[in-house]
Structure formats: C-alpha cells, structure tokens
Amino acid sequence: MRDVASAAGVSVGTVSKVLNNTGTIAKATRERVIEVARSMNFRPNSLAKSLHTGLSGSIGLISNDSFGRFTMPIMEGLEAVLAEHAIGVFMSNATDDPELEQRHIDQLLAKQVDGIVVTARRADRRPPVDLRGVGIPVVYVFSNAEDRDALTLLPDDEGGGKLAVDHLVAQGRKRIAHVTGPQDFVAVSLRASGYLAALEDAGLDAMPVMHGPWSEAWGREAASQLLDRGEVPDAVLCGNDQIGRGCVEAFRDAGHRVPEDIAIIGFDNWPVMTDACRPPLSSVDLQLTELGQEAGRRLLAMIGGERQTGTIRLPCRLELRGSTERAALP
Questions:
Q1: Which of 117, 185, 308, 322 is 20 to 30 Å apart from 258, CA to CA?
Q2: Whole-prediction pTM
C-alpha cells in the first residue's frame, strides 16, 4: 500500500480510504489511486482488513433452485448492490436435501461470512436455517421462513394477479378464465385471490379456477376443456408462462385468434417462453432482480447493526406483448 501511495503522490491513509470505499476523497484523487493500484496489480489484504473491521467482506447464498430460473436474477440484483461495497457472494446449491443444506451453511459459517441470503425455486414456507448459534443476519428472498422474527422478501403474487386482470378488464374483456398450477403452492392461492378480487371489483363473474401441472401440456389440455364445455373465454390469466404458451397454441389450433378473440397473460415473464410464443406472450414479471437488490440493501443494513423482521412483498410489473394487444374492441 505504501508503494501505491508513493506512486500516486498521496498518503497511505488516502489509499486505504479509496480501496475500502470509505471517507470523502476528491474524484480525481480517487481515480488516480485506483489507476495506480491497477497498474501495479495491487490487491488489498482481505485477511488484514477483516481483522481490522471484524467483517469478512463476503456473504453466502443458499438455494434449492438447481436450474437457476429464479435464483440467478435474484443473485444478479444482490451482487449489483454488494459489489458497490466490495462484498463477494458464495453461492451453494442445496437441492432439496436438508443435510446438504446444513453442510453448506456450516462451510459458510467456517468462512465467517457476514450474512446469508436464502432463496428457492418456490416461495413456500420452510424451516429457518440453523446457524449453530452464530449471530449473523439472514434474509429470505423468494423463500418464506417459519419464523416471525425473520426478514422475508417476496413478490406480491396477489397484486400481480389483480394487476393482470385489471388490464384485461380495461381492454373490455368480460369472460376471463384462470388456468394455473397445483393447489399446494402458496403463490397459486395468492394469484387466484388477485384474479377473484379484480373480477369482483369489476362486477364480473369468475369462472372456476383450473388447477394442473406447471406445463405447456396442461395449458393445452385446459384450453381444450374450456372449448369442449362451450365455456369460451375472451381472456385467460395463466399461472405461469408454460401454461400460457400451451393455451395460446390450443386456442390457435382450434381456430380462435390470439389476441383478437382471446387475450392471454402468463406469469413469471420468462423470456424462454414469452419470446418463443406466437404471438409473444404478455406476462406478469415477479421483479426478481429488484428483489435481489432490495435483499442486498437490507442485508447491508443488518450487517451494520439494524434489526429488520417481517414479510415484505414487492410489487409485480405487467410486461405487455402481442398476446393481449388488439386494434379495437368489438
């Protein structure tokens, strides 16, 4: 560090403040110190820093989302916030094995991480993680701990369902169906509640909620069932984008135009599905990257000594595409 200070023409204290992102340093001075440090391939001694601050400059992330469909956007948002504070993330995949999860947690604790983020592929209730009595902060994101003192960040699934139906109603749709996933998912129940609430507010009758697997095949089957019963909707809110794409295909194959005859909205805003659909699928975005950013901000506050608890639901966003747009109402 002395060599960097000498080459940059500043004190060792100034170099320390720049590299640790502390204190008030003039922009030009900061940029000069960073440039000199890079040219000298200087790397701060993280062990010495941790002995000084009592912090390791790292956090752990535990997930059972093997495919990363939900965890990776959360990770992206989390890292974007923590990187500004020179904090790294150790990621561990626990699959659905409680013993493996505990081994990962023990390893993270051995690394003396400053906090842990727990996430998952579904936002249902789960036991709190066992920290072996170590008092570091934990944030649950897209994962709901059975602990009233825990801090949990979730998407507002009910609000997302209502947001989608409100849009369909505003388009003039009146026979709106809801085809969704298995009943044992908390998100399924919440999205259905939003669907029903929006229809009640609009003074419209609800159609029976249709439950099935999270698959395109179920979307096709559900659409066929509606047509076979003579219950042709003019709009469908689907519980995820796979179901939505299946509905679009089945209605189109049966001679119904999407969106002119039937508008369809999915859930999750997964580009693999929404962009491959014809027409492209409108979808409710869970704002997972924003959830990760919020987790990063709150974890930083907790590492700094602030106590945070409770369940916080962040609003969803509606991404409109061709499956809901039409030139004019009949």
A1: 185
A2: 0.82
